[in-house]
Write a structure and sequence with these properties.
By secondary structure, the chain is mainly α. It has 4 helices and no strands. The longest helix is centred in the middle third of the chain and has 37 residues. The chain starts with a helix and ends in an 8-residue tail after the last helix.
Length: about 120
């Protein structure tokens, strides 16, 4: 069973991570907008603008995925299911939760999932 102090410490870390992710999301968008990445200019300018837009999109997707993981961890705290491995249904190691408070897998669960995931390299 997880100690309430560990859960509260993880919750603080999650709230800090959420704030950081939201700030980074907004900063990336504002930086993109301030650069004025419009469709004008020659082909090189248009290509550069398209690359910047694609980079923004990829970064925003990654930040959204991280934010979703943080939000789910906060919801698990509220439901009382925080710190339980999705794979083994055992408690996740305290050190792992403190290092990665949004994790849903224990070390054993992560290894099990990795062992059962399709290996694309072995298909070639």
């Amino acid at each position: 069973m997880l100690d309430r102090k560990i859960i509260e410490l993880c919750k603080e870390k999650l709230l800090t991570a959420k704030s950081d992710l939201l700030n980074r999301y907004q900063t990336h968008f504002l930086d993109f907008r301030e650069r004025g990445n419009g469709g004008g200019g020659d082909e090189a300018d248009q290509s550069s603008a398209l690359l910047a837009e694609n980079n923004l999109f990829a970064t925003q997707q990654r930040l959204r995925a991280q934010l979703l993981a943080v939000e789910h961890a906060l919801a698990r705290i509220e439901r009382g299911t925080y710190g339980i491995c999705e794979e083994t249904e055992e408690f996740i190691e305290k050190d792992r939760l403190l290092a990665i408070p949004w994790t849903t897998l224990s070390i054993e669960g992560a290894e099990m999932r990795e062992d059962h995931s399709p290996q694309t390299a072995s298909n070639y």
